[in-house]
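fyi for ur records
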Amino acid sequence: MVDTVVVGTGALTLDDLVAVARGGARVEIAPAVEAAMAPSLQWVQDAVAGRLDGGEGAAMADPIYSINTGFGSLAGKAAFARPEQASELSRRLIVSNASGVGRLLDEDVVRAAMLIRVSSLTRGFSGVRPVLVERIVDMLNAGVLPAVPEFGSLGASGDLIPLAHLAIVLTRAAGEDREEDSGQAIVDGEVVSGLTAMRAAGLERIVLGPKEGLGLINGTSFSTALAALSVYDADTLVRTAEVAAAMSIEALSGFADAFLPQVHAARGQVGQIATAAHLRDLLAGSEFIDGSESVDPVRQPPQDAYSLRCVPQVLGPVRDTLDFVRGIVEREITAATDNPLIFTELPASRRLKAVSGGNFHAEYLAFVSDFTSIVVSEIGSIAERRIFRLDDSTLSRGLPEMLVDSADAGMDCGYMLPQYLAAALVSDCKTLAHPDSVDSIPTSSNQEDHVSMANNAGRHTRQVVANVQHVVGIELVAAAQALELRLAAAGKERSALAPATRAVLDLVRSTPTSDGRGIAFLTRDVVMYPRIRAAAELVASGAVLDTVAPHLPTEEKES
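which gave:
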């Protein structure tokens, strides 16, 4: 990962986001950003000072949404004439919107959302001062992490509530800086007041100017952060699931016919072709795969169950969907999503440069989070069927029941309960994958009468990804056990395995666990949870993909 991410030199990438959210990369703002932000800021300042008609110092008379009016359905209730009221309005908005509940969002989500908010505001359409984005960057670089509850956003009018929990730490009232109105932040694992956290970091909290309250909270930053981190993890997950599938296929003495390139070229789907190629490379050199492109299969008919045979047809669409999701997410990372947006380049005939639109509506994020939940659930669903097949001696082509060759049959449960766990996790995913984007509850006196629920979708897809990381981890340890049992039954050395799967088997066996015993070959029952958790971390970290990479052609390493 990069050490520094510069905002304002072009579109940020998903890799940039992860470098800041998880890698601790330093954030810098490009010198050109101040000039980009200046025209919209100047227009707001002129509007507040009454200079839009060329005068000087006149009271602001016309209502301009979010600058001298209320918000949502309150927009038409009043127009405030005094400039200081516009500033007070911004602060009151932050205080009133900081009303979230639930568990605190993880650090990587909050850091990602902070970077996304900086990226959005530096586009120059929001009419806010550069000091706002500079201070958020200061917080990121100093490790000041606002404590943001998970519940509150509807994914329309932006992620108002979670962003307010960020903004309340950053900002203060014009008078006394009251600790009870400073929100909360996390310092050294402890929840403290926002005021305490900012003082500890040597950072001054900011008195907001006109429009800056809504500029800080009216956007899709948290919905985008959740979607972005989930798709990043899901991309690693699907390719790791292909590795685990290859290990299971080899352990079950599967057929190569299902992965021959001609089969997938005949359909022409990009993801399916890529998954099949990956499986062929992973299984290359195995003595346990029946048949090849040039050699007839021995057993007839050469057909495995769908959970083996149809891996390209299931995980290929997952790849394609995630590619689509990634494109939308990367565009949203750099999008201007608050309201109103200020376009000073509008013709002189249009006096009002503040344009009320709906870029805060997070339907894009709701859809892609739902799509991610659905396709990742399928990764887990088909993986669980392979785990079941490995456990069942009537389906596993000669492997012992529950993958344990116990001296006292029935004394050891072997891999029975990990399959139970996989089933429970997959069932949870089926519930979580119900699309949030089809729901909408009107708010704000029906002014906001259709919302996206993108934040809920993002929370759910993050849990789905975590669930399936554990399911694939279970398949890794079960397939490792099955491969060694297959070798023993055949009287063969480890060199009979495909080089790629053998490397992962070695990785699994060398991985430490919290109880110090590692993931050893199972001859009698042991406590399973340390092994499952360690295997899930191998999946999440990308260690499995790093291990197989030297055994794959260059094009597959890069795919």
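The chain has two domains: 4-219, 227-340+361-439+453-558. thats all i got for now
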